[in-house]
Structures are given as C-alpha cells and as structure tokens.
Amino acid sequence: MPTTYLDFEKPIAELETKIAELEAVSQQGEGPSISDELKKLKDKAAKQLKDTYSSLTPWRKTQVARHPERPHFSDYIEQLFDDFQELAGDRVFGNDEAVIGGLATFRGQSVVIMGHEKGRNTESRLRHNFGMAHPEGYRKAVRLMDLADKFKLPVLSFVDTAGAFPGKAGEERGQAEAIARSTERCLTLTVPMVSLIIGEGGSGGAIAIAAANRVLMMEHSIYSVISPEGCASILYRDSAKARDAAEAMKITSEDLLKLKVVDDVVKEPMGGAHRDPQRAISQAGKAIEKALSELAGLSPVELKRQRRDRFYAIGREGLN
Amino acid sequence: MNWLTNFRTPGLKTFLSSKKDTPDNLWVKCPKSGELVYRSDLEESWYVTPAGAHLRISPRRRFRLFFDNERWEPLQLPPVPQDPLKFRDDKPYPSRLKAAKSKLAAREKEESPDASPPISQEDCMAAAFGRIKGKPAVVLVQDFAFMGGSLGMAAGEAFIAAAQLAVARKAAFIVCTASGGARMQEGTLSLMQMPRTTLAIDEVREAGLPYIVVLTDPTSGGVSASYAMLGDVHIAEPGAMIAFSGPRVIEQTIREKLPDGFQRSEFLRQKGQVDIVSDRRELKATVGCLLAHLMPKRAMDETPIGPLKAPMADVPAPEARDKSKGKKA
Question: Which of A58, A127, B154, B265 could form a disulfide with B236 if both were Cys (CB 3.0 to 4.6 A apart)?
C-alpha cells in the first residue's frame, strides 16, 4: 500500500484504507467473522486497481511516471548491479548529481551505467536538483561513454528527468552544446548501448543519454519533446490544459512503441512500479539482459550502423 | 506650405484603397534604433539596418548571399507524413501547415515574381548546391517564418538529405539555423530529429568535409541542443539570440531579470560557444576563408556547377517507403 495516492486513485485509497483498518481489527482477535468481508473487500480493491490501471489516460500516466514513490535510478542500481563504483565529475567544472554513473557488474559482466536521479526526500532532491541536469551532468555522461568505448564495456542508461535545467548558469556554460555532444557521443559509441526510460523522459535532457541501440520504456513512463504543462502553456496558452496536451502529444509507452520510437515496453506490476518496486526492477533487468544479448554479436561498425538505421527509420515507416 | 498645412484627414478614397496601393512594407522599422529604413536600401545591405540590426531573411536571400554568381541548384527535399499524430490544439495541425505554406508562397512571389532561380523549400527548410568562393558547398537554410523554424520530421529529413548531398558531392555543409525549437505538434517524433540530424553530421564528418554552422536569430531549444552546436566552426550573426532555454523560461525559473545581451551572439562568443561573430555582409568572405583552409584545392574548384544527380543512394524513394508502410509484426 503506497503512502501517496494520486487524485484518480481515490476509490482505491478508500478501499485500501478500509482493508487496513479491518486487518488491524482482525489481528487484535476481536469480531469472529470478518475474514469473508475482508476477502470481498480485497477482491474489490484489486478489481478497482485493475480497472483503473488497465486504461490509464496519458495524463494519468504522467502522474504515475512522476509518482514520488516510483523507483528511481538509485533503486535500480541497488537491485540490478553488483559492486557499483560511482565515478563523479565531468573533469571540467564540477560534479552534477542530477546525473550519476559509474562502473558496475550486470549479470556477471562489467558495464558502464548512468542515469538521472531525482532524489527521494527534500535534502536529496535538492542535491540531485530534482534530476534536472546542468551541462556538467551531460559532460559527465560523455566522459563515462568515452571510458566505456575505450574499455569495450556496454553502456546502460536510465532516463528519469523532467528536462535539462533551464537556468542562467547552465546557459552560460553551454547547456545546448553539452546536450548535443552527449547525444552525439551515444551515437558514435562502438559498444552496445541500451536505454531504459524509467519515469519521465523529458525532451533534450532525456535524449542526451538515450540515443541508444535499444530504447526501452517502463509501461507507465512517459517520453516527450516537452512537458505536457509546457506544451499547454505554449500551444493552448493555458498550462491547466496539460491533460489535453498529454493526450495530443502521444507520450505513452504504448503509442511510442507503435511509432517505433521505442523498441520494447517493460510491463509494470498492477498499480504501477511504486506498488512493487522490486518486481518492476526485476522485470526491467530481464528486458535489459534480453536487449544486450540481441546486440552481443555485433561488431563496432555494425553497432554504429544499427544505431544509424534505427534512428533514420523513425518516421519513415508505419506512419499514415 | 509645410507638411502640417498640407495635412488633411483621409477621405473615403484613401480609406478604401487597400494596402496594395501604399505597401506598408515600403519602410521597415529598425528594431535596434527605431528609425524607419527604406526597403530598397535594405535590399542593398542584405537587410542589415544602418544601426547594425540583422533582420531575418528568406532562404532565397541566403542563397543569393552565399553562392557565387548567385547561382545554385535546388535540392528537392524528401516528403514526409503530414500530421502523423493527428494533432490538434485550438487549430488542427494541417491547417497551421497550410497557413504557413501560403505565407511562404506569398513571400516567394514578392521576392522573385518569376521564381528564378528556383528554390525548393519543404516546410521550414531549403537546401541548394553551389559554389562559395569556388568551393563546392551545400547550403541548408532554416526559415523562421515557417512556423518559427520549428524542427519536425520534414526539417529532419531535409537536414539528412542535404548532409548526404554534401557527402555525395564532396562539398562543404553550411547550415544557417533559425528556430524556436522542436515542433510540438509532432511530439516525440520531433524530439527524434535531434539524434537523426546528429547522425547526418556524423556522415559529413566521416567524409572529412567541413560542417559550418551559421547561427542566426533566433536559435534555441532542440535545434541549439543538436545540430546548431556541433559544427566544426560556429559563426553567429551579430545580436542573434542563441539559447537552450529562452529568456522567458529562465526568468520564470530563477525569478530575476536577465542582464542585457544575455544569450546574444557576442555573449556566446565570450563564453566560448561561438567562434566568430560576423556581419552578414562579411559572411560569405568569412565562410569562403574557412573553406579555403579546410578544403584542399582541387582542379574542379573552378568548374561551374553541373546538373543535380540523385544525391541519396541510401535513402529509399518516397514510393518505396510508402509500399513498406503498414504494420510490422
């Protein structure tokens, strides 16, 4: 049972609260015959959850993708990788903790991992700048990819950002150039690269570390060119129309799989990854392993070629 | 008699006569000094005002500015699916496209009534092959007048086609950027143009050809965060706004006013993102000088441009693409 419910989860919240209350009562041993009642309620809650989550609107998916209890990159690191050695810094200006990365072992194989980290509480959110990177974050990504290329290690990236940080300092230090270089570095890698969108894939800040051979998406994550709020305020001149913008922009995993922007979608536990992070992450691990194995036989030239063909093909087939 | 005594209130005739009789574009107000500049004077000065403001110009004028003898071969740009997402805000996306196209046609008629030499513009992009100070070059121009020069599938395909033409012709690739950023009406497909254009630049690099970016006002968002910042050399026109996030977004985020000149060409040069700030009237000479250094002298540098051959061996023709459409298992 999550501690935070989204606005559309109110009926679920009510049922689950009632269940929790009844369970507390039954554990105290009072009232003999509530187990039937409890089972009924649980079935009802499960059904409610299933009904709600089997047809989430794009805006609701956006809310789930941003759920405060949704597993973050650091949770993935902990569960999927052994002996993670963080490598800090961009070698130029500083260490941007909105992007973290380093060396790790995945299924017995050394890999370079990197991703956005949003932070979990006020203190860590500030430290990670809510997952919104400055140029240093992308330059860190570039140096990590340089390292991967040199030592022939696959790169795994985890995307979870509302976007690159729109600030004065970032602009002064070349935010645009840093993003462009990082995207370019992904595309010139001679080692396999797999990206997974775990929460929000926000615009240039996301693509900078997601121009990979295989791009995967968690079922309830979103991937878009601008946040629904941003799109609404520009096109509809009303940020309250974010719901409509989310609908119009086709930002869900289902839509993006059809558009071939992503290659595979990782099923989440019923009710979203935050209800069972361990299972969600384990499913993600399997999908990454599969993607890596598909790329295993390719030579450096073929890997580059595959990436080029993959991105060039987007929009050339399967559209109206 | 002075102009005051000469002045009379407009009668019915003047009131009814349309703008055609007295073109409202005869005079142009300089955004820098506020003075009114005669349009034909601007024609002479490539739309740089006496105060030095660089006004936005069309792809046609850019081609005339760059190419030797004002001669070029237009590149036919590949068609793309229109409105793949069936996007609609307060207007459907196709009607926005249509409006932008008719605006374009009107400008073409005004700038070149007989449409010669031809240009071929698709969406916000136009590309042509020609020579700059003798060196073969493909110039790709992004047109801010077409939906803010926003980067969508058409622009992305145009970029790839132009880059591949440069490779096929062993020509330099010169890109004049002008864009507010991504085309939101194409959603994530517009975001995908960032890696796609980057891949095209990689092809130019692999061929050892120069890729020169001319940043013009304004260049921001997904365009600045991809091909605009990946040049071998970055040239900017004076006073151009060049940014990742526009000033309004930043001011909202940090809740303070940005200093004058922030995110302008001169500022970016000071911060190390731009190599050269070049007056438009010097632009051709500047690019020509760079190409002379970056491209070895070849005998054919002196030969005039020939007919345009199919530049894109790699890219399936649109018909071929259409056939392969539909669901894939």
Answer: B265
Alpha-carbon distance A6 to B48, whole Å?
Answer: 55
pLDDT in tens, B234-253: 999 999 999 999 888 888 87
The identity of residue A53, as a single letter, is: Y
Angle at B234 between CA B174 and CA B154, to 5 degrees: 45
Burial group, residue A37, by CB count within 10 angstroms (0-12, 13-18, 19+): middle
Q: Which residue of A has its CA nearest to B225?
A: A176
- Cα B30 to Cα B141: distance, rounded to the nearest angstrom: 23
Tell me whether residues A320 and B81 touch, CB distance under 8 A: yes
Beta strands at B36-38 and B27-29: parallel, antiparallel or unpaired:
antiparallel
CA-to-CA distance for A253 and A244, rounded, in angstroms?
17
**Closest to A137 (Cα-Cα) out of A206, A195, A192:** A206
CB B82 within 8 A of CB B96: no
Helix axes A228-235, A58-65, angle to 10 degrees: 130
Strands B211-219, B233-236: pairing kind: parallel
CB B157 within 8 A of CB B80: yes
Beta-carbon contacts below 8 Å between A and B? 177
For the four alpha carbons of B279, B282, B284 and B287, in that order, the dihedral sign comes to: negative
Question: CB neighbours (10 Å) of residue B157?
Answer: 27
pTM of the predicted protein model: 0.90
Residues of chain B neighbouring A253 (CB-CB closer than 8 A):
none
DSSP string, B183-243: -GGGHHHHHTHHHHHHHHHHHHHHTT--EEEEEEEEE-HHHHTTGGG--SEEEE-TT-BB-
Cβ-Cβ contacts under 8 Å, B185 against chain A: 235
DSSP B31-85: TTT--EEEHHHHHHTTTB-TT--B----HHHHHHHHSGGG-EEEPPPPP--S-TT
Residues A77-98: what's their mean pLDDT?
96
| Cβ–Cβ below 8 Å for B226 and A204 | yes
Give A225's contacts in chain B (Cβ within 8 Å): 182, 184, 186-188, 190-191, 222
CB A274 within 8 A of CB A2: yes
ipTM confidence score: 0.95
